[in-house]
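[09:14] KT: can someone run the structure on this one? pasting the chain below
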Amino acid sequence: MAESLLAVEHLDAWYGTARALEDVSFEVAGGSVALIGRNGMGKTTLCNAIMGMPPARVRGSIRFRGEELVGRQSYRIAQLGIGYVPQGRRLFPSLSVEEHLRMIGRGHSDAGWTPERVYELFPRLGERKRNGGAQLSGGEQQMLAIGRALLTSPQLLIMDEPSEGLAPAIIEMLIETLQQLAREGLTILLVEQNLGVATAVAERQLVMVAGAIAAETTAKELADDPDLQRRFLGVEPLAAEAS
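[09:31] RB: done, structure tokens below
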């Protein structure tokens, strides 16, 4: 087995006295991994814990390329090689597409990703480079959020609910983009509740229930098991959606 890029061990997290994560352990060695679960199961809390963002109390270990992340500031974690696309995109409404990308690109002039390469990946952003974040469609905002993260030339890209609120055609484009990035060698941790997106992007599936990893399976096994889909995700089976 390849050496782990990200290793989470016995991770607990609290919001005040409320426990949001309980004894979470998993490793990401390479390729794409999906973390799936319903809303309120702790997925975003896990992303925040990895990136050094609230909740305030975290116990356990998170190592990236062997370096402990717990206790580090968020910008230091990003500098180690982790890109983050947060839920809700968190763009600056008054900054243009170009300003978003140039602002990140200035600190990474020697990195593999440049604003020009982002425009090649997302031609629509090139057409909208003078538009502000608030003037973009949901799909364009997601393209910009992904492009902004890629400009740090990460070794690991964490994406929290990237398909949320997007039209089906845009979701298909998103899937193709993530598959392309994975083929180019980028390791992706995809956090999703959209089962179709998760199984299209990643073969390895981690299921989160009530702040804990309840199961580890594969995209094929999950897609072929309606009972598993209902029990852990509370969704109708994929086969029913296609009929």
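[09:33] KT: thanks! Confidence is low (pLDDT under 50) at residues 239-243.
[09:34] RB: yep, looked fine to me
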